[in-house]
Specification:
Helices cover 54% and strands 17% of the residues. The protein is an alpha/beta fold and 366 residues long. The chain has a four-stranded mixed beta sheet with strand order 4-6-5-7, with helices on one face. Strands 13-12-11-14 form a four-stranded mixed beta sheet, with no helix packed on it. It has a two-stranded parallel sheet with strand order 1-8.
């Protein structure tokens, strides 16, 4: 129940936070990479089923107590019984393991295929890449390959990144912008964030908000790269970059390759947002930087500061509030008998989610 309470709390936070990440006013001042890191932190928080000492508990007397009670029901299977909560947890973990294993297998197969393709020997491309590596003082190893697949230029790999270019013809200036974009992904290690978001989303496969968050992380990574490339550029250079994005979107098919960072895709709304933001990116002033920092802190604080706790017990379809004046527990061995208005109600294994002020008495012999 602790996991369910934390995930529900985070889902409420995401329902408030995700619409903000679609507002251009926010995206103008946010650093896409840092915002993506905050989003990943929220996903990681969901994997930690503990309440922090500074967290505030919000007691909920509707719906959650009913869910908690139903989780305790037993289901008979093949001669033995198992609680609903244990069955659901087993299904959740099994499906998550299968999904993560399939994606990791796909990633390793992709890397094996890419390693087999010979390096591009185009003199112009090699020259541009060398100039960009000197511009950014990048000493790492980056290979460039070409493929007959009708895909967007992309980068793949963590330790030894590879830039994959389609065989579509590009001008020298377009090659420069495409290679710079992909090289920045390598320098900023953006592929790590995309892989982390994809795998974490696979763990919480049943939560639709996590899938929305995953796609938002992918978009934030690209927005961060666009800002890095264009924030100090002239109006002419920005228009050239926008034209390159638009032309690439028209040339390629809508074929997404997992665990890669593409120069472009066919999601028209995201492309329009990228283009509009590129036109108005400015160097962050003090107030904008403070706002972005404050929003990041608010998200991190929100994902650890509160949890929802089921409170109360059901009585003929209604809910009652348990207080020290009307209820008490009697501890017997490893269980607790709950008494309400001096009458036995039921037995529970844990009192973690009950009012801590309710008295606890020990039966004789305890």
């Amino acid at each position: 129940m602790t996991i369910l309470s934390i995930v529900l709390s985070l889902s409420i936070l995401l329902a408030i936070f995700l619409p903000l990440l679609s507002l251009e006013r926010c995206l103008k001042v946010l650093d896409g990479r840092r915002a993506a890191v905050c989003c990943i932190a929220v996903m990681i928080r969901a994997l930690i089923p503990v309440e922090f000492p500074f967290s505030k508990t919000i007691r909920v007397s509707r719906v959650l107590p009913d869910v908690r009670d139903k989780m305790k029901y037993s289901v008979s299977m093949g001669g033995f019984s198992v609680k609903v909560s244990q069955l659901l947890l087993f299904v959740w973990i099994l499906a998550a393991i299968i999904l993560v294993a399939k994606k990791l297998l796909l990633y390793f197969q992709l890397q094996k295929t890419i390693r087999r393709i010979p390096e591009c020997r185009d003199a112009a491309i090699s020259e541009i890449l060398q100039e960009l590596q000197e511009k950014y003082s990048f000493t790492g190893s980056v290979r460039v390959i070409r493929t007959s697949l009708n895909i967007s230029p992309l980068v793949s790999g963590i330790r030894n990144p590879v830039i994959v270019l389609p065989e579509n013809p590009f001008s020298r200036e377009e090659y420069r912008m495409i290679l710079e974009h992909e090289l920045l992904h390598c320098i900023r290690h953006d592929i790590l964030y995309k892989i982390a978001a994809d795998l974490l989303c696979s763990v919480y496969w049943w939560n639709p908000l996590f899938h929305v968050l995953k796609h938002k992380i992918f978009e934030l990574i690209e927005l961060g790269n666009d800002r890095q490339m264009t924030v100090s550029s002239s109006s002419v250079e920005r228009q050239a970059y926008i034209q390159c994005l638009s032309d690439t979107a028209e040339k390629i098919c809508d074929h997404q390759i997992p665990f890669t960072l593409s120069f472009n895709n066919h999601e028209k709304r995201a492309l329009r947002r990228r283009i509009h933001l590129i036109e108005c990116y400015q160097s962050s002033g003090l107030m904008k930087s403070f706002f972005a920092f404050a929003l990041s802190l608010a998200v991190l604080w929100g994902c650890t500061s509160f949890t929802l706790e089921p409170y109360g017990v059901s009585e003929e379809g209604d809910y009652i509030m348990l207080t020290p004046d009307n209820a008490y527990f009697i501890k017997k061995n490893n269980s607790y008998e709950l008494y309400y208005q001096d009458e036995y109600f039921y037995t529970v294994d844990s009192i973690e989610y009950y009012n801590p002020d309710i008295p606890i008495y020990h039966s004789e012999g305890e």
